[in-house]
Sequence to fold (821 residues):
Amino acid sequence: MAGTLHPAAAASTLGRVARWLYDTDIASVWQRDTATLPRGFRILRARYRDFAESRLAPLALAADRDPAGFPAAATFAAAARQGFQSEYMPWPWGTMRLGASARSLVLPAVLKAEEFCAADAGAGLFLLAHDLGMAPLFISASRPAYFGWLARIYAEIRAGEPAIGAFAITEPGAGSDVESTEGAAAARLSCFFEPVPGGYRISGRKCFVSNGGASRWITLFAARRGRGLESWTCFLLDKSMPGLSVGRRERKMGQRAADASELVLDDVFVPRERLIGKEGRGWAINRNVLNFSRPVVGAIALGIARGAFEHAARFCAETRVGNRRLIDDQDVRLTLADMLLRTCAMRAMVWHAARYRLPFQAAGSMAKVFCSDTAWQVCCTAMALLGDHGYVHANRVEKAARDARLTQIYEGTNDINRLAIFESQSGAEFPAEP
Amino acid sequence: MRLGRSLEPRPDPAGRGHRRAMHVDDDLLGAVRDTARRFAARDVAPMLAAEGRDGDLSKVPELLARAASIGLIPAPGAGDADPGAGIWARSAGPATDLISVALVEEMAVACAGFAACLHHAGLAARDLDQHPAGRAVAPAIALFGPGWRPDWQAFLHPPDGAASLRDGRLNGRVGPVHAPPGCGAFIVYASGPGGWERALVMRDAPGLAATDPGPRTGLAALDMVFLGFTDVGVAARHALGPAMPLDYLRRLFLGLAAIALGNARGALMAAERYARERRQGGRAIDEHPAVRLLFGDARSRVAAAGAHLSAAAAPGPDAAWRAVAARLRVTAQCHSVVSDCLQVLGGYGYIEDYRLEKRLRDSLTLAGSAIDPNALRLMCAGAPDGT
Fold:
């Protein structure tokens, strides 16, 4: 009796047109969502997933336990061979798909972030932080930066070199200040440049730099000595520069495959041609980089949550309680369904933000805040659902929870992003008093 | 100070009714808390100050011995001069729950993992009260099994999937078992002819396979094992008689809630200190409205959790149900407090230096410890007679 009440069985009793109108296909959410994408993005999403499952997932637990043992160069090279590390320039320099990017500049990045981070957010961050480091070279729209430096770095990548990028903005006493308008006005900066013949000299420290240790190329922001963030300027540094050294590698709770390191600059000479954009344009470049990167953080969170859901569902399907599977308990199904719908809501949010022609502040921050908060909830739910098995490393959901927590912090804490949402929308929604 | 018989509850001078007779005055609980605080500051803090993800865990057995020497854990052996009035000691009488909760909570302000060690050691010591095996075996209790999902009925009558004790032979699987380091035996709750029964099984008993599931999120000071029993012989002197899983459940849950509360209080203190000392956007972090909102919320949650836990630990009817409800709600409230406190520190909260990430890992571990929240919710929905 129950069999005939199932949607597929019920549909079979209908006429041809009615059956055509009634979708009872057995397909995963991933398949259904992918089918909504334009063809180029469909192919791309599948390629990102194949790579993540074959190259990143097998390394995830070991890299989490022993980050120093993570094969960063080999992983980067493998991703580069797939064309995933040079997506800001089209052929012949890079691997940007012009047709797809014409529709959305951010969608390829969010598709990549979700797939990579569903497999391992640590390795995912490592690969994505390279793109973040290269973003100022693209976003500054500076010809020398784009056709000079970015093309050169991509040539190194094509040649199989670990030309890994990093993005350095955070300073020890000014974490959130460099990510918001309000804090910026009173920021206590500690990294300064001074013009000298032929270029600049930079001194100071940057902290929490993702890929700070692993990178060869770093886009770094510094203020002119004696001035504030309005003088911020972007420079392209490389590790061979005298005076530039890597300080401590932070011992993080999660996303451990990617290092977060301190950079120490002791009177580093930076030639004039390493200026990205013009002097004093750094603050604007930084703000727009964040517009591009925050939807990607939302996608990182989405990937982590999806991974947690998949691991939890698999555990519940494979675990037997008495003579039945755990997944057959109604309360377990309710909980899993709740996790699934939350991840679907996250994806809707991220894809929506990515479908704007250009990313903008409110859209990026909304995606980041919503997805990171929701991912944390989903991962905590996954852990709780597994009970005592939830906090066992081998079951992977606890790693997902630790990984997810960072998405509420980096790229601006969520409160900073909430203020950014309001700042961005207030002009349109709540005009200032005359 | 040594905790001892002096901590037995004093007669209520007003002598008003049953609940009042069980009253433990504030001075007494204050003395208990002071003892725990001094121990935490003098002995536990140096362990945490050491490098490493969870401090120097090699010091835990020594700390446990020191805690036992001042009566924080009862001495369970027959002939022990002073059974103590420590965590879950029978000699504390009807005030046991309140005293134990206070001790565990204060210890967790310093370190949730070590508090969990004391809690589980105390639970086992109580179960082995005055048994000849005594403290020498430092046991841990093994009740929950991978083959059954807890509900009220399971604590009244052994469910399918519980370990089986028949004719002096023990079979089945139990776990995970949380055991203080150095644990030499397990008090196994198993299905016997008359219902739940207990058996003391040495760790090296033939037929006992203990499996370590590997790295875990938090509460790292505590060991965790899955046990498999294949026709393990239980000598008559190690058959401990009928078990009362509901009593164990009540104490276990009150203690877990107390650890969560202490952990959250510790996180709040650390975050408030950080927010006073550090500046952002030209002013102290704790002057930012966003942070004040967060602290206001966290403080109110801690206060509510404390009140809930005190009410749950007070003597009276529905004690097991109240413990289940406290385990569910206090742990959830405190988890959000710890997470919010970590957020105040931003990136610094996420790295090991300030120990906030350790508190969050401990909190994540507590959330699913022993019983998953869904099972707790189902138990809260109603309790049958006899619970």
